[in-house]
Amino acid sequence: MNHKKVDPKSNSLRENYHLLISGIAPRPIALVGSKDSSNNFNLAPFSYFNAFGANPPVVGFSPALSGRTGLPKDTLVNIESTKEFTVSIVTSEIVYQTSLASSEYEKNIDEFDKSGLGKYNSNIISTPGVLESPFIMECKLIDIIKLGNKPGSGNLILGEVVFFHINEDLFKDDGSIDAFKIDQVGRSGGGWYTKVKESLFKLSKPKGVGVGFDSIPYKFLNTSLTGNQLAKLAAIEKIPKYININIPLNFNDLVKDLSEYINKDEIETAWQYILKWKYLNE
């Protein structure tokens, strides 16, 4: 793999922006509801967004200063004033309305009305969430961290989640949320988005502490086995006890069989092949 070396200081704002949004993707989208001191409501999407802790539950997003004018977005000004906001998760059913809400309307224009999205009354704060979203968070401001004072500079807004509103149909019997039912949309580079449920795959976490790549005989690290396949071997907590089995004598055939066992998640069998090879060759 050949990497192009890029110094961000030699790039324009636009070039750095496109590198960031293309390379860091897909990103979850926060559809943020806010209001000003005169109770004018605002709604805007932000994909510089994530969760930052669970005790207390904290979310954060970053409305950047305008790349053209350097002025702050209405969302930032509103939250600085009222110290509260809502975050509604964007699903495929409202993604076009969400995009419409991103339009640069005048300050006193209500993007709820412009986008056709309904207001969902909050329990604790006075800012509404989005009625059509299955997952809404009421947030009180913790801090605003200003990341610069130039056009395109970020402003990391951190808020404590003081109330959740979650569609009951999303829950599984064990109380967790069904990843296929929530149907979130993620933001990628350019005009591209991701339907999360169409990209889901399950990855088993290592049980305990994996033995690591350095426990795999070096010769197997330089074969057609992929990094992901080798990681499955390295994730085993304990190398199994050697059992005398028959294996292909040709090394390439052995690697081919190994690959098949790993892909079927028969990791202990794969290790037995390695142990038998090691017994015969070391």
Beta strands, count? 12
CATH uppermost class of the largest domain? Mainly Beta
CATH topology of the largest domain: Pnp Oxidase, Chain A
Q: For the record, what is the CATH homologous superfamily label of the largest domain?
A: Electron Transport, Fmn-binding Protein, Chain A
How large a portion of the residues is in β-strands, by DSSP E?
A: 15-25%
Main sheet specs: 7 strands, antiparallel
Q: Write the element-wise H/E pattern from the N-terminal end onward.
A: HEEEEEHEHHEEEEHEEHHHH
Q: What Rg do the Cα atoms give?
A: 25 Å
List the total number of helices.
9
Instruction: Report helical residue fraction.
Output: 25-40%
Q: What is the architecture of the largest domain at the second tier of CATH?
A: Roll
Given the C-alpha coordinates, what overall shape results? elongated
